[in-house]
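Archive transcription. Copying these from loose printouts into the bound notebook so they stop getting lost. Printout 1 of 2:
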Amino acid sequence: MAAVALPGIASAAPAVGYDVSHPQCDEELPRERAFAVVGVNGGLSTRANPCLQEQLTWAWESSGEVDGQPRAQLYLNTANPGQLLDEVTTWPRSGATPYGACDGGNSTACSWQYGWERAQNSVLSFFTPAARAARVDSQPSRYVWWLDVETMNTWQYGTAEAADRNRATLEGMAAYLLSRDAEVGVYSTGRQWGQIIGEVDDDSVLAGLDSWLAGSVSAAQAEAACAEDPLVADGEVALTQYVRDDWDRNVSCR
């Protein structure tokens, strides 16, 4: 495996990170990696990654040879299915939120509550037992948690209000993780982020979070993407992703 040359670093081996989740359950994971990002969910925020325990162990065995990138990081699947309430059994029926009281409807308040509850469930029901079984650190505050925003998941579209509800879901997820003293970032492409979330106000809990940018097709393009605009105001691009040999690889921008 060839090392990726990082800006300002003459030699770094291995200087590449990987991200894995449930699709890699039956794969032999890369032996040489500087850091790893593991998906907690099994494609949907309501499902667990069935290989989470094994992949956490693998992630903590990364070399940690890239400054500014913890050896083991995590990501969560995100979504907002509020337009499909008849089909959603996990939609909240109540809750006090920054957007007022949730009454079970397709509202900004319930979208925020949905995000909080999905993050809480992912941490308490999926991550914590898997980390303890793997005998690695089970404290959320010891990890960077990336919120994975992609059009392949269920989102609301068509109006500014729909984007507001989507944004509120991410805010709820981020708020829960921050309440556990975790570090939080956002993952997407600029195009998908614009379609799903749109602009983030300066007073949002999302403002200032680090960005992990997807969409590059080579290591060189991923390195260049470090200079692109972050997904949210006042944030920084911390990671960029590219695919080679069917593996998601990641370049540190730090």
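Printout 2 of 2:
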Amino acid sequence: MATVIRLARFGAKKRPYYHIVVTDSRNARNSGNSLETVGKYNPMLPRENENRVTLNAEKIKEWIAKGAKPSDRVYKFLSAAGILPKKEYIVQTKQHLPSEKTQMKIKDKADKLAKVAEEKAATEAAAKAEEVVAEPEVKAEEVVVTEEPVAEPDAE
């Protein structure tokens, strides 16, 4: 029997309230077959409220000593209360990420945009280089030719 410490949902529709229970891992979330209730969690209260999470530390320590494993959310509560050490890394689900196919499309689009940006930068750099080379040359429009009338010899 694998014993776990996890949340069991109570409360009304759209007004959740959770009991932190010790139960067999094979039981359903709200089966009612929990071994013991060791705390409560009310997510409707603000984070600063002291009654948001209430824990019975002695019972929790006893169950952990017997081999009970807390769920990820309960582990966060216990580490915040100082009962367990804080984990550096807790595995998060990937449900919030787009599907693999969508991620590939996003990557392809980003690659295409990067390629276009590189080409644009290269053409601008080439244009600037041509301007720098063309500047020392004197343009025909800028050359001012002054012609003085030539005195014609008198044909006598």
